[in-house]
Design a protein that fits this description.
Length: about 400
């Protein structure tokens, strides 16, 4: 008899996006003439930067010739990419991260889940509420939680609310936690942590010997000088933080797949017998055993992001989405809505009008404005009464959507 991992049965069965899909298909079937605009899922819409495309074409041609063909590469990533990342994303900002502390992978989603492999079972884990669901679900799968309550909160996790009341900056936990997930700029709220907020977290982590899992997938969207691009811009963070980065939102790699995780040397955690062990070595062991590297072609594409042409093309791409977000914020405010985010991130987090629940607002917006967003409550109990709109869309759709929201709110 084979047994399953019972922890999987605790999961709230992928409720959010399937439920959105179900409601949208039902509406579309009943209203075949309606032109539905989807601003729900956080996927990019614009093509890859030209520099990435030509680098990948060249790499494909290399693979076609015996002399330049490549088989397996280093599991941690090719040096050309790790060095470009270390120089451009960290050292240029005064963060002392070296190429051999960077582990190239096929996604931050996988990395944020896989990292739990090298950590113990008894850690007290804190997540924000609302939260990127991957952090929670991977802890459930790993057996780090009990059952979920009616509001979807799992026993054993520490939830740190992010609401209007704290301007979406989570307060330090009252109890001692061992691991905390921070995502800045944030998905879903679109808000970003200031330098002083991150300094408080690094200080907390060092005092409590906790580790911060810092997800900076939206780093490229930062526009304000006071918002750090990397946790390692904060003094002492090398001792207490692992950072997750991705080319997905920066350069439109959601379908191409390339990301990286930074595990600084000297960052340690405790064994059950009380010794300190470096996480760098453990992650290297995990990565080389369970992963065989990102495609050479894709890594050449990612490297091209750091060329002068690549940098300017990526800037243009990010600016395009940020302009969408600016237009959305301005348009929704004009409609009388209260909106957050959209300045350092491609997400706008609005307060539902008239105290509507997130799902009631979803239904009304769909039926009256033919517009799809994401109910805030799907990201956690504290997301109730909020709603996420994504700026990943064409300009025409964004302008049309703003007009429809205005009519909807006024009607
Ligand atoms: C999109 C996103 C990522 C990136 O995931 P990939 O697997 O690299 O595509 C990571 N974290 C958050 C919060 C995201 O929204």
């Amino acid at each position: 008899m084979a047994y399953v991992n019972d922890n999987y049965l605790k999961l709230k069965a992928g409720y959010l996006f399937p439920e959105i899909g179900r409601r949208v298909s039902k509406f579309a079937k009943e209203n075949p003439q309606a032109k539905v605009i989807r601003m729900g899922i956080g996927d990019v819409t614009e093509p890859l930067p030209a520099a990435c495309i030509s680098a990948m074409h060249a790499a494909v041609d290399e693979m076609a010739r015996r002399e330049s063909f490549r088989g397996y590469g280093p599991e941690q990533g090719f040096d050309f990419l790790r060095e470009a990342i270390a120089r451009h994303d960290f050292q240029s900002r005064g963060a002392q991260i070296q190429a051999d502390e960077i582990f190239v992978s096929d996604g931050s989603k996988c990395d944020t889940g896989n990292i739990l492999d090298i950590l113990g079972k008894s850690n007290v884990i804190a997540v924000t509420d609302p939260v990127y669901p991957v952090y929670v679900d991977t802890n459930v799968m790993a057996g780090h939680t009990g059952e979920a309550d009616a509001g979807g909160r799992y026993a054993g996790l520490v939830y740190l609310p992010m609401t209007e009341a704290n301007q979406f900056v989570p307060a330090l936990p009252e109890q001692k936690v061992d691991i905390v997930y921070l995502c800045s700029p944030n998905n879903p709220t679109g808000m970003a942590a200031s330098r002083s907020a991150l300094e408080k977290w690094v200080d907390y982590a060092r005092k409590n010997e906790a580790i911060i899992f810092f997800d900076a997938a939206y780093e490229a969207f930062i526009t304000e000088a006071d918002v750090p691009h990397s946790i390692y811009e904060i003094e002492g963070a090398r001792e207490c933080a692992i950072e997750f980065r991705s080319f997905s939102k920066t350069a439109g790699f959601t379908g191409t797949r390339c990301a990286f995780t930074v595990v600084p040397k000297g960052l340690t955690a405790r064994t059950s017998t009380g010794e300190n062990v470096e996480l760098h070595g453990l992650w290297n062991r995990r990565h080389t055993t369970k992963f065989n590297g990102v495609s050479y072609i894709v890594q050449r594409g990612a490297e091209a992001v750091y060329t002068p042409e690549g940098q300017s093309q990526v800037r243009q791409l990010v600016e395009f989405y940020l302009e969408n977000a600016r237009l959305m914020c301005a348009g929704l405010k004009q409609a009388g809505l209260t909106v957050y985010g959209g300045v350092n991130a491609p997400y706008v987090w609005l307060k539902t009008p008239n105290g509507l629940s997130s799902w009631d607002f979803f239904d009304q917006l769909l039926s009256k404005a033919h517009l799809v967003g994401t109910p805030g409550s799907g990201f956690g109990a504290s997301g109730e009464g909020y709603f996420r709109l994504s700026a990943f869309n064409s300009r025409a759709n964004v302008l049309e959507a703003i007009e429809r929201v205005n009519k909807f709110v006024q009607g």
